[in-house]
Amino acid sequence: MPICKKCGVEIEATYSSCPLCGAPIGNNTIKQEEKIPTKPQLKEPAISHPWFLELFSFFSLAGAIIVFAVDFAYSANLTWSRIPLISIIFTWLFVFFIHHFKKKPYLLVTLEMIDFFLFLWLLDILIPAFFLFFKLAFPIILVVGILFLLVILWVRSFKLSTLTALSAGTFAIGIFLVCLEVILNRFKNNTIFISWSIVAFACILLVSGLFLYLQFRINKKGSNLKKYFHI
């Protein structure tokens, strides 16, 4: 199929002029296989923002110094300021891990889990009447971390599409709710049973199945989508 040299539009062989610019057919056209290659577009380098971590570190340090100074000035010791100082330190670590390990999801999730474990463990020591770390906080965070790692492993290993990944994620949420009820009942009543989490899991299972169905329809109609939307 010839191509107009003036505007680059493909022209049917029966046309006597270009339907877009009106240029006459003849020397004005070139064959499609002789089309002049265009220069490949260079990808723009990703813009990083190291200033964000620096700015966050500055405000974190400033807040820690102010909290420490106020508490020490009135009591000549660290009393109430221990909890804000610990919170500032672990919040900074949380942001630091995301900034430096965002391209390594397995390592990122592991480090964030350790960060939360240590944070809640210290709060459990400082506020023993409020937290029960090993009976409540530890198993909940452990379940969240394991399920998150399994979803990432599943998505990366099988190169799942967006909808299939959403299906796996919602299914993991359903499993988490069941585990959460088991942990809470074990903590509160010292028994293991499930009730409301089964209903929640059934509802989430329907949503997960909906994502799989939509992906199945897209795969079935994939040729039409590529034809009409050029994808």
Attribute tags:
231 residues; mainly alpha; two-stranded antiparallel ribbon; 7 helices; 2 strands; flat; disordered C terminus
What does this structure look like?
With 231 residues, this protein is an all-alpha fold. The chain folds into three domains: 33 residues; 76 residues; 92 residues. It is 67% helix and 2% strand. The protein has seven helices and two strands, in the order E-E-H-H-H-H-H-H-H. A two-stranded antiparallel ribbon has the order 1-2. Helix 2 packs antiparallel against helix 3 and helix 4 packs antiparallel against helix 5. The C terminus is likely disordered.
User: How large a portion of the residues is in β-strands, by DSSP E?
Assistant: under 5%
Uncertain runs are: 32-36, 44-48, 223-231
In whole angstroms, how far apart are the ends? 22 Å
Q: What order do the helices and strands follow?
A: EEHHHHHHH
Class per helix and strand makeup: mainly alpha
Q: How much helical structure, as a percent, in the residues?
A: 55-70%
What's the structural domain tally? 3
Radius of gyration: 30 Å
Largest sheet: 2 strands, antiparallel
What is the topology, as strand order, of the major beta sheet?
1-2
Number of helices: 7
The coarse overall form would be flat
Mean pLDDT comes to 79
The count of strands amounts to 2
Topology:
Elements: E1 3-4, E2 29-30, H1 50-75, H2 82-101, H3 105-126, H4 133-158, H5 162-188, H6 196-220, H7 222-229
Antiparallel strand pairs: 1-2
Helix pairs in contact: 1-2, 2-3, 3-4, 4-5, 5-6
Summarize the structure.
The chain is mainly α and 231 residues long.
